[in-house]
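Reviewers of the previous submission asked for a worked example of the structure-prediction workflow described in the proposal, so we include one complete record here. The input consisted solely of the amino acid sequence. No template or homolog information was supplied to the procedure at any stage.
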Amino acid sequence: MKHSCKTLVLHCIDFRLGKAIRNYMETEKLLSNCDVVSLAGAAKNIASLKNETDRSFVLNQINLSKQLHDIQEIILMNHTDCGAYGGKNAFASEVEEHNRHKDELNLAKKMIAREHPDLTINTVLAKIDSAGEVTIQAI
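From that input alone, the workflow returned the following C-alpha cells.
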C-alpha cells in the first residue's frame, strides 16, 4: 500500500522549539501530513562545506522522503541562538545572526533545488526571544 505526504520539514533538535514547531505545523496543516527530520543545526548540515558526511545524510533523507512518500515541498527551518552556530553570542548583532541564517538557508535551498528542481522549497527562521518565546517567520 502506497502512502504519501505533502512535505518534509527539516528543523533543529533544540527542545525549546517543540511547541512552536507543533503550532506551526498545525497552522500550515502539516501535522500528520509531513515527514520530519530533526538534526542539530538543521539546514547548516546542507549549507556547511565542512562536513560532506552530514550533507550526504540529510540529502539522502530528502531523497528517501521523496521516493517513499512522494513529497512535493520541503521546509527548511533554522533558529536563532542555535548551539550549532555557536549560539547568539557568536554574532555581533541580531541582524548579523539573522543574515547568517538567511544566507545558509538560501544556500541549502539552492543545493537541494539542483537535485530536485520539481520540489517547492521554503525557508523559515524560528526566533527565540529573551523570554524564551518562539516566533516562526518566512525568510
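Strands lie at 7-11, 34-38, 73-79, 120-128, 134-138. We consider this example representative of the routine output the project will generate in years two and three.
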